[in-house]
C-alpha cells in the first residue's frame, strides 16, 4: 500500500546525514592533534597515495579564469572513493581584507555515490600544501638541510616552515617579502616556536646560506623572483607560487640548469614554472621518485626544483586523512544534506508529507 499525505513524516535515515567539518571544528582538530603531528600525518597519507598513483583518475583541474583571479574544481577518484575540492585564487582580495584562497571539499563513496564528508578546506589546503612541499623535499633536498629561504611571506609561510621543520629538520628561516608587514607577521607568529628567524631586505640576502629556497608569492603575473645568477649549485627550490597560466616566479634559465620534478605534467605545463618551456622540456613525476622508478637527488651539486602547483590527489589524501581522524575526534556536525525517502521511488511523497499542517 502506498503512503498517503496523512501519514506521519519519517525522520531522516542515517544515510541522509554526512559529517561536516566547519572552520571552527577544523581549528579544534588541529589543536587536538597538534599541527606538526598533523603535517607529518598528512605527508604520509600523500606519499602513500603517490605510491598508488596509477589507481587514480587524473585530470587537470577545471578552471574558470577572470581578470581578478581563478575559480577551480579539482576532482579525482581511486575507484573506491571520489573527492573534489572547490578553490579560488584572487590575489587582489587582500586589499579588501579578504583571503586570497578559499576552499571546501567533499568525499563520496563510489559504490553508491552518497557523500560521506563535507569540509572546509581553506585551512586544510594550507596544511596539505605544506605537507606536500616537505614530503617532496625529504626526497630531493640536500641531506642535513637546516636553512630555508622563504620568499613571499603570505598565508602559506608559517605552514611551510612548520612542515619543513617537522619532516626535514629545518630550523633557520631567512624571510623576505616586498611587504615588510608580511615578514613581520611571520616573525611574530613563529617567535618562540624554535626557529632562528632572519628578516632580509632583498631576495639575494634571503637565499644566502640556504639549502632550500621556497618561493610563494601571490601576484598573478609573469614575475622573476629568482634570477639565474642568484641560484648556486646544490640547492633545492620549492617553487609553489605558480598555479595558473601567466603566473611564474623563476627565470627560465634556472629551469634549464635544474632537474625539475612535478606532480602531473599536463597540469603543470599549463600552470607551473615550466609553462615557460617547450612541450618536450624534460620533467620527472614525483610518484616515480617515491616508488623508485626514477632517481631524485643524485649528487651534492645538483639543483632540484619542485614545480608544485597542487594536484587533486593531494586533496583526496587530505580528505581521506580527515575522514579517518573523525573516527577518534568529535569535531564535526551531522549535516542533513541527502534526500533519503523511505521509499526511494517516492521523493515527491516525502515532500508532500512534510507539508506544514
From TrEMBL:
EC number, UniProt record: 4.3.1.12
GO MF term (any one): ornithine cyclodeaminase activity
Residues passing through the membrane, by range: none
Protein name according to UniProt: Ornithine cyclodeaminase
Domain of life of the source: Bacteria
Keyword annotations from UniProtKB, A to Z: Lyase
Species annotation: Dinoroseobacter shibae (strain DSM 16493 / NCIMB 14021 / DFL 12)
Amino acid at each position: 500500500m502506498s503512503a498517503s499525505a496523512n501519514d506521519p513524516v519519517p525522520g531522516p535515515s542515517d544515510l541522509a546525514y554526512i559529517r561536516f567539518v566547519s572552520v571552527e571544528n577544523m581549528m579544534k582538530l588541529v589543536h587536538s592533534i597538534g599541527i606538526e603531528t598533523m603535517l607529518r600525518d598528512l605527508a604520509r597519507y600523500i606519499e602513500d597515495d603517490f605510491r598508488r598513483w596509477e589507481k587514480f583518475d587524473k585530470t587537470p583541474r577545471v578552471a574558470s579564469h577572470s581578470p581578478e583571479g581563478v575559480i577551480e574544481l579539482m576532482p579525482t577518484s581511486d575507484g573506491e572513493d571520489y573527492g573534489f575540492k572547490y578553490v579560488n585564487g584572487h590575489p587582489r582580495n587582500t586589499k579588501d581584507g579578504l583571503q586570497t584562497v578559499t576552499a571546501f571539499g567533499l568525499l563520496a563513496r563510489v559504490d553508491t555515490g552518497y557523500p560521506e564528508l563535507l569540509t572546509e578546506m581553506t585551512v586544510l589546503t594550507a596544511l596539505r600544501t605544506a605537507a606536500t612541499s616537505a614530503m617532496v623535499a625529504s626526497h630531493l633536498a640536500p641531506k642535513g638541510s637546516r636553512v630555508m629561504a622563504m620568499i613571499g611571506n603570505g598565508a602559506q609561510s608559517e605552514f611551510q616552515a612548520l612542515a619543513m621543520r617537522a619532516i626535514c629538520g629545518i630550523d633557520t628561516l631567512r624571510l623576505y617579502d616586498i611587504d615588510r608587514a608580511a615578514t613581520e607577521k611571520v616573525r611574530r607568529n613563529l617567535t618562540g616556536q624554535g626557529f632562528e628567524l632572519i628578516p632580509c631586505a632583498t631576495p639575494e640576502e634571503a637565499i644566502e646560506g640556504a639549502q632550500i629556497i621556497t618561493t610563494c608569492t601571490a601576484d598573478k603575473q609573469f614575475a622573476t623572483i629568482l634570477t639565474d645568477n642568484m641560484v648556486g649549485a646544490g640547492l633545492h627550490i620549492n617553487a609553489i607560487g605558480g598555479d595558473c597560466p601567466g603566473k611564474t616566479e623563476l627565470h627560465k634559465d634556472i629551469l634549464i640548469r635544474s632537474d625539475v620534478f612535478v606532480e602531473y605534467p599536463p597540469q603543470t605545463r599549463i600552470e607551473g614554472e615550466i609553462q615557460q618551456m617547450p612541450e618536450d622540456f624534460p620533467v620527472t613525476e614525483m610518484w616515480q621518485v617515491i616508488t623508485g622508478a626514477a632517481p631524485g637527488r643524485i649528487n651534492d651539486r645538483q639543483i632540484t626544483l619542485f614545480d608544485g602547483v597542487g594536484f587533486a590527489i593531494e586533496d583526496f589524501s587530505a580528505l581521506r586523512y580527515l575522514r579517518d581522524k573523525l573516527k577518534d575526534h568529535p569535531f564535526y556536525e551531522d549535516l542533513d544534506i541527502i534526500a533519503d525517502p523511505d521509499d526511494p521511488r517516492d521523493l515527491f511523497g516525502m515532500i508532500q508529507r512534510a507539508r506544514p499542517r
